[in-house]
Amino acid sequence: MLKKADLKKFKEIYRKHIVKDFPREERSSLNNFKKRIKNKNEDVFVFVENNKEKAYTIIANLENDYILISFLAVFEGYRSQGIGTKLLEEIEDKFKNKKGIILEVESPEDASDEKDKSIREKRIKFYKKSNYQILKNTKIYFGNIAFNIMLLNNKDNIDEKEISKSLNDFYTRTFKRYDKTLIFKVI
Q: Fewest C-beta atoms under 10 Å: which of 57, 60, 112, 167?
């Protein structure tokens, strides 16, 4: 079950998990995240199964009727148990009326070494198993880190220009307002 988290729960997730799960250059500070959540730019959800919290995600509503999974991770003790797949299924069900679900995954071509490349390729394979596809003409860069954009398309056609614009508008609005230290570029 996907449960919306309040700010208190988010702080706990940030301190216990996000700081371990995502490198500093890929995440905002706790204060900037709190501002974004308070202003309804993003929502935090916890995946609960058998009364145990097992994963979390941060989701933004974008213009043009898309959502962006900006963060998604399974808690350490529950990895490799199918929880990530269940979490994606819950997200897909909750947002099935949207045009599509967008996520970012680090580009394997830009990995620092073979181990990092392998991890990135596994992530892409995981999302592809859930019917996400890599958009060929859209990438995002946070500083020097390149991300492929993947999409679960809930409608018939894909308009990459519309998706790029939605992402660019979201990041421009978010980073200019809350976190001027993160530099991005959507191409």
A: 112
pLDDT tens digits, one per residue of 168-184: 888 888 776 655 555 56
Check: CB of residue 122 under 8 Å from CB of residue 84.
no
C-alpha span between 124 and 187 (Å, rounded)? 19
Residues composing the chain: 187
* Alpha-carbon gap, residue 65 to 62, rounded angstroms: 6
Query: Is 158 within 8 Å of 118 (Cβ atoms)?
Result: no
Whether this model's pTM surpasses 0.85: yes
Instruction: Map tokens 């679900």 to a residue.
Output: 101
Query: What local confidence, expressed as pLDDT, does residue 60 receive?
Result: 94
Give the whole-angstrom CA distance, residue 37 versus residue 10. 9
Neighbours of 118 (CB within 10 A): 12
Dist CA 43 CA 50 (whole Å): 23
Q: Which CATH class is domain 2-186?
A: alpha beta
Angle at Cα 179 formed by Cα 119 and Cα 101, nearest 5°?
A: 50
